[in-house]
Amino acid sequence: MYDVIIIGAGPAGLTAGIYAGRAGLDALIIDQGQSGGTANTAPLVENYPGFDKIPGDELMKNVSQQAGLYCDIEELTIVQEIVKSSDNSYEVVTHKGSFTSKYVILATGCEHRTLDVPGVAEFTGRGVSYCAVCDGNFFVDREVIIVGGGNSAATEALYLNRIGVKCSIVHRRDKLRCDVKLQEDLEKNNVPIYWDSELKEIRGEMMVEEAVIINKKTGKETTLKVNGVFIAVGNIPNNKLALDYGIKCNEYGYIITDENMKTSDDNIYAVGDVTGGIKQIVVAAGQGAIASDSIQYLLI
């Protein structure tokens, strides 16, 4: 039996494994894919302490190798369910077999909502981005558009505007869905908005060069010369395991935790993007450390 099983091998899960192992806990990390999570897809990470610039896959390879020194890692293993046993241990059922542990940490992450638009997949990482904080510095003094109309889109637009990116918002309605204060801030900062419009196509050679938008009311198409397209239409938390078990989530589907990253079940913790909040590698890593540190004291 393991002391803790960590489901998810992104920054949060791997860091939880490192801290668990260094605390003397017998830990296992399970991931349905390869170690690294969505951080592997970041072309360049410039805001992780200790590195001026580093490709996301290289950073996560380093973290994964370090985690492997302290705990077992099972990649390409799909977790099907979590079952609580009569002795209050947990059976983590996978398509390769079952594992048991005293505690579980959910580090299952979330996925960006995307758009089924020509060019989006092709130019992801080459001008198409889902994170202004991650990639905004690449576009200082350049033209970009942000697709969306909620709090995320408004916040990203204001952030890009603040660091010197020339950004506009493309929104499919005639009114933003974000908080009134954010709308006031957008107006105060003169952020242009293309109302009643949707992204139709992204074009370019090696990188994004232009975006075609269409006004839903008039049918008019407009070609914008831009260097980047930020898609901010929401995220989908990977919360199925939590919901199936009965762990409480908020109205957006993110797992609710306390300050120690404990969920509504006393022996199940959740860390990283699946808990909502600021979706950054450094934040996820910090939460992973908090969860494992909390569990080690319970096992003393």
Describe the structure.
There is one protein chain. By secondary structure, the chain is of the alpha/beta class. It folds into two domains: 2-111 and 235-298, 3-Layer(bba) Sandwich (FAD/NAD(P)-binding domain), CATH 3.50.50; 114-231, FAD/NAD(P)-binding domain (3-Layer(bba) Sandwich), CATH 3.50.50.60. The chain has helices at residues 11-22, 56-68, 132-135, 151-162, 180-188, 240-245, 281-298; strands at residues 2-7, 27-30, 72-74, 79-84, 90-94, 97-106, 110-112, 128-129, 143-147, 166-170, 193-194, 197-204, 208-215, 221-225, 228-231, 235-237, 268-270. Helix 4 links the parallel strand 9 (143-147) and strand 10. Helix 1 packs parallel to helix 2 and helix 4 packs parallel to helix 5. The two termini are 16 Å apart. 43% of the residues are buried. The mean pLDDT is 95.
SSE arrangement:
Elements: E1 2-7, H1 11-22, E2 27-30, H2 56-68, E3 72-74, E4 79-84, E5 90-94, E6 97-106, E7 110-112, E8 128-129, H3 132-135, E9 143-147, H4 151-162, E10 166-170, H5 180-188, E11 193-194, E12 197-204, E13 208-215, E14 221-225, E15 228-231, E16 235-237, H6 240-245, E17 268-270, H7 281-298
Parallel strand pairs: 1-2, 1-6, 2-3, 6-17, 8-15, 9-10, 9-15, 10-11
Antiparallel strand pairs: 4-5, 5-6, 7-16, 12-13, 13-14
Q: Given the structure, what is the number of helices?
A: 7
Secondary structure: number of strands: 17
Shape category: elongated
Main beta sheet: 7 strands, mixed
Give me the CATH architecture of the largest domain, please: 3-Layer(bba) Sandwich
* Beta fraction: 25-35%
The total tally of domains equals 2
CATH class of the largest domain: Alpha Beta
